[in-house]
Amino acid sequence: MEVEVLADADAVARRAAETIVAEARAAIEIRGRFTLAISGGRTPWAMLRVLSSLDVPWAKVDVFQVDERIAPEGDPARNLTQVQATLLEHSQARLVQVHPMPVELSDLDGAAAIYARTLAGVAGTPPVLDLVHLGLGADGHTASLVPGDPALDVVEADVAVTGPYQGRRRMTLTYPAINRARRVLWLVTGADKAAMLVRLRRHDRTIPAGRIQQGHALVLADSAAASELEATRSIESTR
Q: What CA–CA distance (Å, rounded) separates 102 from 144?
């Protein structure tokens, strides 16, 4: 796992957008398409605003959701609502193919299976995403893989439905889907994440985030989140 420490959340968002552009161009050059899975959060929305204005072959990009709240279409709590308001705000970025999680369906388990088939239809069987963007919760969760939830133990499916978390059930990619990704990009900001970032860096499997494979992982952290990391374990950046 590589860790880059940047000054603040805005710098993290800009660096993340640059990283995605580089990964997109490389994937398109090699395979003709780029598959990206996006998590929610304040810093990711800033990242997507920057990304939408950059030079990307958008017509060759497929965007998936890492997770989504079970809520009606257009609900402000939905990650999709924020993706539509940020990534798609520039005309060229509107060429991107966005694949929403079908959380409006009454049969949520069936909806998870549908999304798994959508993944496979674009990213192969089993699906291998080019880049999965993840965040880190102060409780050690990532995606909607939260402490104590049965979805942590799902190994036979790429998409699962969770129990209630912070008032809502979620749909989420599972460990198998995330761990097959060619690249994992972590965005970690805020002092409340400092202790968990140390545990993530140590590959602490007692927290959900610690079960994500680290071989192809890049962590972009602001100085507040990285405040408890050993200096020798981080790469200082002046970007």
A: 16
Which tens digit of pLDDT belongs to each residue from 190-201? 999 999 999 999
pLDDT tens figures, 105-130: 999 999 999 999 999 999 999 999 99
The pTM assigned to this predicted structure is 0.93
Is the bond preceding 126 in cis, omega lying within 30 degrees of 0? yes
| Alpha-carbon distance values, 171 to 23, 116, 147, 149, 161 (Å) | 26, 11, 15, 12, 4
**Measured distance CA(222)–CA(42) in Å, rounded:** 13
Full domain range(s) for residue 35: 2-236
- Check which CATH number belongs to the domain holding 228 and give it: 3.40.50.1360
Tell me how many domains the chain contains. 1
